[in-house]
Amino acid sequence: MTLSICTAQLNFVVGDMPGNAQKIIAAAREAYAQGARLLLTPELAICGYAAEDLFLRPAFIAACDDAVKTVARETAGLKGLAIVLGHPQALAHDAPAFSACHNAASLLRDGHIEQTYAKRELPNYQVFDERRYFVAGTEPCVFEVEGVRVGLLVCEDAWFAEPARSTAAAGAQLLAVINASPFHLGKSAEREATMRARVAETGLPLVYAHLVGGQDEVVFEGRSFALNADGSVAGRGPGFEEKLVFARVHHAQAAIKIEADIAPEKSLEADLWDALVLGVRDYVGKNGFPGALLGLSGGIDSALVLAIAVDALGADKVRTVMMPSPYTADISWIDARDMAERLGVRYDEISIKPQFEAFKAALAGDFAGLPEDTTEENLQARIRGTLLMALSNKFGAIVLTTGNKSEMSTGYCTLYGDMAGGFAVIKDVAKTRVFDLARWRNANDPYGTGANPIPERIITRPPSAELRPDQKDQDSLPPYEVLDAIVARYMENDEPIESIIASGFARADVERVTRLIKLNEYKRRQAPVGIRVTRRSFGKDWRYPITNKFRA
Ligand SMILES: Nc1ncnc2c1ncn2[C@@H]1O[C@H](COP(=O)(O)OP(=O)(O)OC[C@H]2O[C@@H]([n+]3cccc(C(=O)O)c3)[C@H](O)[C@@H]2O)[C@@H](O)[C@H]1O
Ligand SMILES: Nc1ncnc2c1ncn2[C@@H]1O[C@H](COP(=O)(O)OP(=O)(O)OP(=O)(O)O)[C@@H](O)[C@H]1O
Ligand SMILES: NC(=O)CC[C@H](N)C(=O)O
């Protein structure tokens, strides 16, 4: 006896319930034609993850209900196909002002909603805020498909022992977990290890059905998988792409064995690249931009963002502008042009010298007798930001900002200057990793847009903001290896200042970096949203007060 299970590893759009429903219906038809009798959709597939405060709107919940009914109706003819569909469900005693709901999943079969399960563990840490919207369920859910008793769990449920245990006690022979589990570096291995623990505790095989796609700051990587009862990987779907992932469940006698294709694992750099590419593609695509543009300086940050953007959108959708100032070195110009040629993107040059002189002339009276300082540096960055935003306004393309995590931490960026733009592609990528990733991309061509896109000198020359003569980043900041290590410990891991010093960092460096992190909260609040790739990014999971006296 064999049951074929299909995971609809698909990319849904938050708030597009009719579109998501049609996608699920098409997947159901295809899966059925290929012999599947159980279709698993990801967590909250009908509305996309995460819909945030949309869950507080009764009209939103009603639109989700309608879409669930549409899926049931349109798949009624697929006789015997069980569809697990993730959706919000309003509580029966719901007060009209606040829509309290369950994070639910319903079993649809032959046009009927047979039963509905409510997620029991609601995550409320990192980027998750589920207790703001949902009420936890209390009961396990087990249903039968072609002789196999399937126990249903929703994402966080499976990160705890109890829900799986009570589902097994309720008679499940196989665990089906539907998920929306945001990417960070190394998460894939954590996920498989956690699910393996559930398998070991219950003795049951497990199918992990996952979402793919970018949603504002988070990226879901897909890579749905299946584990046998002995914990071995029975199947794994590809990462970062849509796919109907099939698993054949053989259930002769008591033993259940799963069989499926196994996509190879990839390096951390390859995963990181894919996450950034998908994050850009979905932000730009789902928000309807015709393309993207960025200031190309001949430095490494804008070079990396350009390479990501071209892999995400294609060279014809990306435009670059070099805006030299009196401090721009010739090699910046040469390297920027070289890179644009290598990737085949549009490249324009607009000198900012006249505007810079005009601003200084306008302020000459006020500034008389005062030395030039960051004020004049920031003027240049702001002129560039103004020009890029003007091009965006006129032609519709979104401005990609190029600040990295080291700069976001220390405020080494100009408000309304290089921070002006719509999407901050590498805001969670530390500068040391920017270099690693640039080298990795030069050696690999995952999207077929050309190997070696970044001129070598862009990677090897010392980073400089080029806002005053002979300026180098390292004149103002500790070496990036030191800076990034302190940021990771203090910001990503909440390590106390004294413990960072005790582990061997100079007190002066730690004091300086942590002071800068605290001082620059106001800047980060005004920064564009960007892709989360670490355990903690400067986004939803970093909520520090701006007005604050505490630092330790
Ligand atoms: N707590 C607070 N709440 C709200 N606003 C606050 C504030 N504290 C300062 N401010 C405002 O912010 C202003 C200071 O911020 P801002 O104008 O951005 O300027 P600021 O941070 O003083 O200077 C920018 C720094 O970034 C460096 N930079 C700039 C551009 C590119 C790069 C690069 O290599 O990528 C580096 C540049 O060399 C300089 O060191 C203050 O004048 C004040 O108006
Ligand atoms: N001459 C320039 N022409 C076009 N854009 C520029 C120029 N200088 C700076 N920019 C824009 O401002 C951003 C901040 O750049 P800056 O040179 O100040 O430091 P950076 O963070 O080291 O970036 P990069 O490594 O890209 O130079 C750049 O990434 C780029 O988008
Ligand atoms: N949506 C969820 O419940 C996700 C929570 C889970 N711990 C994860 O990140 O995988």
Automatic annotation (TrEMBL):
Active-site residues per Swiss-Prot or TrEMBL entry: 43, 119, 155
Binding-site residues for ATP, renumbered to this chain: 295-302, 402
One Gene Ontology term of the molecular function aspect: NAD+ synthase activity
Biological processes annotated in GO: NAD+ biosynthetic process
Positions annotated to bind deamido-NAD(+): 378, 407, 523
Residues holding L-glutamine: 125, 181, 187
UniProt catalytic activity: deamido-NAD(+) + L-glutamine + ATP + H2O = L-glutamate + AMP + diphosphate + NAD(+) + H(+)
Hydrolase found in the keyword field: no
One GO cellular component, as annotated: cytoplasm
Classification via InterPro entries: C-N_Hydrolase, C-N_Hydrolase_sf, Gln-dep_NAD_synthase, NAD/GMP_synthase, NAD_synthase, Rossmann-like_a/b/a_fold
CN hydrolase domain segment(s): 3-251
Source organism superkingdom: Bacteria
Principal EC category: ligase
Function: Catalyzes the ATP-dependent amidation of deamido-NAD to form NAD. Uses L-glutamine as a nitrogen source.
Protein name, entry field: Glutamine-dependent NAD(+) synthetase
Gene (UniProt): nadE
